[in-house]
Amino acid sequence: MARGDLTDEEWAVLEGLLPSERGRKARPAHDNRRFLNGMLHVLRVGCPWRDMHERCGKWNSVYVRFRRWAEQGVWDAMLATLVEFGLTDDWQHMIDSTTVRGHVSAAGAKGGLIRRLLVDHAAALRAKSMPAVTIRDVLLASS
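RE: above sequence
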C-alpha cells in the first residue's frame, strides 16, 4: 500500500458502494480498489491521466471506469450515502482545478448567452446522472 492509498478500513466502507465490474470483450475486470486508488491519486495530485502511477493499472482503463461511474451517477450516490450515514460532511468535494476557469462575470461583467447555455446543459447532465434508485436504497433493502 502506497502513501495516499485507501486503508483497509476505508475500503471496507467503500467496497459495497461501488458497482461490480465484469470483463468487457473477453477481458478480465480488474480490482475496483486498485482503480479507485488510481482515480484518487490523479484527483489528489492533479496530474494528467497519462501520468498516473503504473501500480494502479493502465491509465486509459482507469479513466474509462472513472467516466463510466460519473455517467452512471456512482460518485453522486456514493457521496449522498456517505453523508446520510454520517461518514463525511456534504461540503467535502474534490474539484479538479485544471477545469476551473474564471468567468468574465466574476470580474463584474454580465454573463452572456453561452454561459447560460453551459449552466443549463450542466444542470441537465446532473439531473440525468442521478440514479432513480440510490446505492443507499439497495443497501437498506438488503439489510
